[in-house]
User: Fold this.
Amino acid sequence: MKFYPEGHLIDKAENKASMQTPAALSDAMRDGKILEARSIICDNEHNLIVDLKCMRGIIPREEGALGIREGTVRDIAIISRVNKPVCFIITDFIRDAFGRITAVLSRRKAQERCMAEYIAGLTCGDVIPVRITHLEPFGAFADIGCGIVSLLPIDAISVSRIDHPKERFTVGMDIRAVVRMKDENRITLSHRELLGTWTENAERFRVGETVAGIVRSVESYGIFVELTPNLAGLAELKENVHAGQQASVFIKSILPNRMKVKLVLVECFDYTYKPEPPVYFFQGDHIDKFTYSPPECAKHIETVFA
Assistant:
């Protein structure tokens, strides 16, 4: 079975079919299927109530996530799932005094299976689909499968530096990421290696063009303007320019041997754009080594996944 971030299964035909009738849910329990449905309530004991269409399900608090039972994960991991898809395995059916049937569910068991059958087999350099779950100044957190979350540090998001991950991602965005480090089953992600080398990005531009950019920093010696997430150029200083502004820039020169793009700042203005899904140069499932710098450049920038 393939494992995906939560939300991937909920609209799939097979998942919907498993929740059409109590008999279909019973079959899903017998087969040990991982299903997805929307959680609608977190009660005062932090049990999740889940809408299974033909009946309600309950995920007891200790079954809400890996680490809840052990006390290594806070209850916010459960509370934050309200009104969102949750994955689960059906473990039982119970009947109340009025004869109503409720399915007993375990998200923890689904996560344990994901750990054992998918995450445990990942190696550094593997490229996997992930979904952004929340953003912090130091990085983005991403669901790598069945609600199991890993960190994508801010310095690993792109070559061009940013002040906050919200400049690249929105919550719920599906992206690809690289397994950067693995400590037992704890994974740290990277992203910049999928966005192309200096040469691949520079080849999208020509000397003499005027193009769009984003001001990333204003230094004493010039203004850095991002042309793509993995390519920035340097323009001469100009008054009343600050980081975060949109810019139009004239490309004065492209110098692979120095890994530089020289720009002339035409205009800057304040405008906020919603982040677009990333454009990936690397489309494979595994990357051993990423060399960002051009071959003719004396400066060597490389990532080795080991």
About this structure: The chain has a mean pLDDT of 96. The first strand starts at residue 35 and ends at 42. The chain has five helices and 17 strands.
